[in-house]
Design a protein that fits this description.
alpha+beta; D-amino Acid Aminotransferase, Chain A, domain 1; four-stranded antiparallel β-sheet
Length: about 240
């Protein structure tokens, strides 16, 4: 049987079962005492598409372009420079300087955050290069346009700015641990696909589409903690 209760906090009357008491709290006040509800997130299915790319051994680079037309250069954990600054006071292996010098071309990336690896001369394993290069991570969107044998664009793909590169896709298909191991073996035997002829590639990055999560697997010391397996590498 419903009886009239008076909330001891807001003093409003409400209908509820049981005998009224001086400690009654209405539903609105009771909900206000509860912690914010933490919903258990849906678990993505493992048997979904993945993209495996070569893991480049360099240092993380970030290019951010705002809706107002500003461009920012960043490392893994800090901003290095933005286009309102005349001078560069912080840099990471010359990445900010490179972004500043190629600002007009890089604006073609469009608004948003564009992550990649800054690699080459003087950075980690150097790959035998005499220059530095920026490899974009988002291989599902970006394609490197070459002067000959241009790759055909798929839906939602675009050519990246000419000053940029894109991490090579080594496998694309259903998640398969055998395919992952075979890809590692191919790198071990054939060397880097990003820099042909360089025979000590670092490993691979697996992007799981359903989980929207990146995973990495290195050729050497994959079971070791990060600081042991790849030294000071940022990625």
């Amino acid at each position: 049987m419903l009886l009239t209760h008076t909330c001891s906090r807001c003093k409003k009357d409400y209908e509820a079962e049981g005998v009224p008491s001086a400690q009654d709290i209405c539903p609105d006040c009771w909900i206000g005492d509860n912690p914010e509800f933490g919903e258990f997130k849906k678990i993505p299915r493992l048997s979904r598409d993945m993209i495996v790319t070569e893991k480049i051994d360099g240092t993380n680079g970030l290019i951010c372009i705002t809706d107002t037309g500003l461009i920012f250069a960043g490392s893994r954990n800090r901003w290095l420079w933005n286009s309102t600054q005349a001078e560069i006071y912080n840099d990471n292996f010359g990445f900010a300087r490179w972004v500043k010098e190629h600002k007009e071309e890089l604006m073609k990336l469009g608004p948003g955050f564009h992550y990649g690896e800054w690699m080459g001369q003087g950075i980690q394993r150097t790959y035998g290069l005499k220059e530095k290069r920026f490899y974009l991570f988002n291989s599902a969107r970006w394609v490197k346009q070459m002067s000959t044998d241009e790759p055909i664009l798929e839906e939602k793909q675009e050519y990246c700015p000419q000053c940029c590169h894109v991490v090579p896709i080594l496998y694309k298909g259903m998640f398969d641990t055998n395919a992952i191991e075979e890809t590692i073996d191919d790198l071990l035997v054939g060397g880097s696909k990003a820099i042909p002829g360089f025979m000590k590639p670092e490993g691979i990055v697996i992007y799981h589409s359903a989980a929207r999560q990146y995973f990495k697997k290195t050729i050497e010391k994959d079971e070791s903690p990060k600081g042991v397996s790849d030294g000071s590498q940022s990625g």
